[in-house]
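Model it.
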Amino acid sequence: MQTRKHERIATEEAYAPVKVLNEYRRLLEGGGGDRGFRSLWTYYLKNESVHTNFLVDRIQDLGERRLADMDRLGIDRQVVGLTCPGVELFDVPLARDLAQLTNDRIAEACRRHPKRFVGLAAVALQDVEFSVNELHRAVNELGLKGVIINSHTRGEYLDDPKFEPIFAAAAELDVPLYLHPNTPSDALIGPLLDGGLDTATFGFGVETGMHLIRIIFSGIFDKYPTLRMGVGHLGEGLPFWLFRIDHYHGVHGRTKRYPFRPDLREKPSYYLRNNIWLTTSGMAWEPAISFTRSVVGEDRVIYAMDYPYQVSAEEIAAQDALPLDDKEKKYFFETGARQLFGIDA
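Modeled.
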């Protein structure tokens, strides 16, 4: 067997403490949460199958079971963050407690296995001030390497000015914000849920791709030019649309179609190529990976698995077989993740 010349760092790997899963169960039993949450977590917590049992067993583990899977698959490190929908569906006091608990548990795992796990902080964006303070605690005291946001917060998006402090904190701390998918909000989910398309098949991409382009169009990267973001699933379709996005951004800017929208210093594609890293989570498909690398740049596409939602040795083999030389492969599997998350060698 040929010896690898790089680590494999998987950069969008999910975790949920037992207490969070129990609170998801409680919310379901009380008929709470939005329609997307009920669709997603009724499936995983109320249905017995090989797939759902595998996920529930693995997602709450940050120890030997997860490490054994990583060893079996050839994953050297995971970047771990709280799974969707995070804690934003809960009342504020509970959400705060669960975010802090999650961060403490992830930090503990990183201390036990410093060469295997890298942690992202959970926040509770119902309380922005708490979230900023918790991000500072998670980075400065716990050693976590960024913040994960599971897309919308009760139907609100990060381009709302009230959420700007979380971007400001990430920029100040020099850590990335990872935008993770969530099921579409109640205002968006109807036709997707009716067609059985509300989660990974299509709904995650609709929700998160829209969210990302809203963030870009908000002008946040002009305010914080050093801000870094990560997004999975090869950018949720946006690389395919970049030509048209740039074109109509220019047309609508010249004709003042949306006067409420700020003028950007650059074309939208600029920010996707300079501030945002795209990971391959769930997208182990050479045509899509190669196209995305050609559009946004070879230094903006890095490896992820999407454990434990999508776990396959064949998908790793497919990405090992990408037509990349040794230097490119090292960046794709290792160096890019180190740059994005500030991971020491």
